[in-house]
């Protein structure tokens, strides 16, 4: 795949299924997001989620390269978090996820 200027586009997909790996990722991910970023996602939850229980977050690629998690729309890293319906209505589960530390 090539980008607009002929540069290669590399796609990397990872799927975490082990409970401990998921917990570690979520803990680190949420810790890196600022309170304002969490509020922004929560406020615009309809734009960041779908009816299948997916939460879509775009991260600043340059900041991620430096080791920081920061929301960003320009040339982003796209993250999809899948929420199950085991704990209630999916969007409510997402809101609780964004509120907790």
Please, could you describe this protein's structure?
The structure is a single chain. The model has no long low-confidence stretch (mean pLDDT 87). This protein has 5 helices and 2 strands, in the order αααβαβα. 42% of the residues lie in helices and 14% in strands. With 101 residues, it is of the alpha+beta class. Strands 1-2 form a two-stranded antiparallel ribbon. α2 (35-43) packs antiparallel against α5 (90-99). The radius of gyration is 15 Å and the shape is globular. The longest helix is centred in the N-terminal third of the chain and has 14 residues, at 19-32. It starts with 18 loop residues before the first helix and ends with a helix. The protein has a single domain, classed as Ribosomal protein L5 (50s Ribosomal Protein L5, Chain: A), CATH 3.30.1440.
